């Protein structure tokens, strides 16, 4: 019995030593960890030098080692510090474990929101283009609306109904039609530029009473020039802006910034985890089926966009 107890103790010490070497190797190979102050022009520390410095800190104080390098360790490495009666060691262990748990929860919530986004993109109207525009009017105007001509904006509003899945098809039809008469528009702009001095002189002003300051009427030439600049933007560029608008809305949703959405229905809902696992399994099965296999005999046998 004594021999067995000695053997178990030896095995435990051997495991601890192996774990110690493993965690020191990880720290010495980490490019973000700081080992000592160096002057400009000093040669970089070698991996062996980093290993020696880290080992010296670990042998001197496990608590100090955890405070400096604990965030770079894997969960399995933290086992090396467990079972201690030292308050500082246990304090840093608890802080590291809470931090890792927080990161795990953050990743879990993001994955659940991502799965909810996928569902909402394929089911219902929540992520239809018109609904996104309704919920984010300022963002739409900043990214897309200000670059639409009056004609494009008018046709977009007139032809799009709340039940439509996407305004993109209507939008692209509009700008495609504009391409057909782009040559005519260019000729009109050239004619207008040549006539602009005369048009400016002929602009009317508001009538005023005696003593009032006369204000110029809104410049029709300025309005035409604004439309001209809007039309100068290529249709491809406008299409990219539509996609940028969508991407920003999706990103805001994942970041918890959608004020109309009840995140409590997703963040704490573990049903989304099953859907994520199912999707992962399906992807794995697909890639397994597509992977080339060696047959020895006749008996051989995974940026967020919604499409």
From TrEMBL:
<feature type="domain" description="CCD97-like C-terminal">
    <location>
        <begin position="111"/>
        <end position="290"/>
    </location>
</feature>
<dbReference type="Pfam" id="PF09747">
    <property type="entry name" value="CCD97-like_C"/>
</dbReference>
<feature type="compositionally biased region" description="Polar residues">
    <location>
        <begin position="210"/>
        <end position="222"/>
    </location>
</feature>
<protein>
    <recommendedName>
        <fullName>CCD97-like C-terminal domain-containing protein</fullName>
    </recommendedName>
</protein>
<dbReference type="InterPro" id="IPR040233">
    <property type="entry name" value="CCD97-like_C"/>
</dbReference>
<feature type="region of interest" description="Disordered">
    <location>
        <begin position="210"/>
        <end position="230"/>
    </location>
</feature>
<dbReference type="InterPro" id="IPR018613">
    <property type="entry name" value="Ccdc97-like"/>
</dbReference>
């Amino acid at each position: 019995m004594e021999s067995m107890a000695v053997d178990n103790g030896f095995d435990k010490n051997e495991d601890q030593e192996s774990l110690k070497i493993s965690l020191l190797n990880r720290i010495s190979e980490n490019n973000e960890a700081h080992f000592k102050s160096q002057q400009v022009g000093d040669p970089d520390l070698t991996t062996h030098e980093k290993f020696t410095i880290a080992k010296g800190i670990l042998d001197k104080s496990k608590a100090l080692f955890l405070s400096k390098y604990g965030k770079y360790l894997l969960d399995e490495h933290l086992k090396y510090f467990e079972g201690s009666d030292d308050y500082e060691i246990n304090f840093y262990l608890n802080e590291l474990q809470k931090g890792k748990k927080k990161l795990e929860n953050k990743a879990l919530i993001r994955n659940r929101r991502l799965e909810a986004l996928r569902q909402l993109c394929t089911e219902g109207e929540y992520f239809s283009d018109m609904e996104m525009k309704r919920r984010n009017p300022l963002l739409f105007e900043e990214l897309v609306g200000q670059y639409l001509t009056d004609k494009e904006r008018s046709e977009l509003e007139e032809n799009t109904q709340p039940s439509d899945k996407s305004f993109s098809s209507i939008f692209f039809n509009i700008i495609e039609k504009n391409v057909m008469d782009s040559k005519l528009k260019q000729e009109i702009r050239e004619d207008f530029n040549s006539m602009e001095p005369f048009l400016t002189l002929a602009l009317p002003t508001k009538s005023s009473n005696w003593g009032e300051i006369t204000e110029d009427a809104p410049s029709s030439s300025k309005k035409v020039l604004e439309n001209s600049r809007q039309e100068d933007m290529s249709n491809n560029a406008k299409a990219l802006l539509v996609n940028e608008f969508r991407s920003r809305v999706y990103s805001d949703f994942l970041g918890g910034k959608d004020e109309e959405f009840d995140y409590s229905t997703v963040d704490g809902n573990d049903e989304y985890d099953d859907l994520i696992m199912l999707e992962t399994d399906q992807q794995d099965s697909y890639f397994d089926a597509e992977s080339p296999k060696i047959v020895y005999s006749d008996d051989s046998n995974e940026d967020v966009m919604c499409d």
